[in-house]
C-alpha cells in the first residue's frame, strides 16, 4: 500500500508539477483548532508606507517557490502548486 501511495505522489509531481507537503508543513499548516500551531518567528519592522513594504516583500520573498505557491488537494493529500503571475498580483 505504501508503494502505491508513493507511486501516486510521484505521478502527481511528474504530471502536474505539484510538490507534496513535507511532514513539517503538515504539522503547522494542517493543525487543528483544538491544537493550535505555534508561532515560528517574529519580525519587528520600522513604520513605513505599505507600498514600500509590499514591494520589498514581493521582490525578496517571491524568489522562494513556496511563497509563490498555493495549496491544492489531490486524492485527499495537499500539494504546493506554483501560481501564475496573474494570481500573484491579486
Summarize the structure.
By secondary structure, the chain is of the alpha+beta class. Helix content is 43%, strand content 16%.
Task: Please tell me about this protein's structure.
The protein has a three-stranded antiparallel β-sheet, with helices on one face. It has 90 residues and is an alpha+beta fold. It has a domain at 64-90. Helix content is 43%, strand content 16%. The termini are far apart. It has helices spanning 2-16, 23-29, 50-61, 85-89; strands spanning 19-20, 69-74, 77-82.
Distance between the termini: 40 Å
**Roughly how much helix do the residues carry, as a percent range?**
40-55%
Strand content: 15-25%
Number of continuous helical runs: 4
Structural shape: extended
* Strand line-up of the largest beta sheet: 1-3-2
Q: Largest sheet, described in full?
A: 3 strands, antiparallel
| Rg over alpha carbons | 17 Å
Oligomeric state of this protein? single chain
Mean pLDDT across all amino acids: 76
Q: Any low-confidence stretches, pLDDT <50, length ≥5?
A: none
Return the string of H and E elements: HEHHEEH
* Helix and strand composition category: alpha+beta
